[in-house]
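Recall the central idea of this unit: under ordinary conditions, the amino acid sequence of a chain determines the structure it adopts. In this exercise we apply that idea directly, starting from the sequence alone.
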Amino acid sequence: MRGRCIALLLGGLMLLACGCGRLQRLVDPAAGPSGAGRTAADLGARLVYDGFAIVDFRAMRDQHDRVHIVGEVKNVSEAARGVELQATLRDAGGHVLAVGSFYPASNHNIMPDEAWPFSYSFGRYDEGIRAELRIVGGFRTIETLRAGTGR
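Accordingly, the structure predicted from this sequence is:
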């Protein structure tokens, strides 16, 4: 819970501090099948795949020309799971400037019907005009080992 609060706070601060000069955003609706039999329209989401829905997604440029994306992903499956997202930044000609994969909840499972905030920074790009986001897939963390316990 503490990590989620910190992520929400950081995302909110980024929105407040970096609200100038937003980038055009694009989400590919043809990225795959919907999760749990529900469509993106049913959920008010932009993209649904492998049991997760992108509920909100925006890209922005800060005063130092660093490009960031922030948003929220929701588990729409019946099981607690984690998710991997991939962000792509393109120039005006559609050429890829940067690609990065990340895990919004790190190694934690997101509970069914729980939304999780995310943020990702591409770094400084003067010419980036379009950010894309896709759901790579879900995974399940079964157990984490504690150092020194032998379990």
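The longest strand covers residues 52-61.
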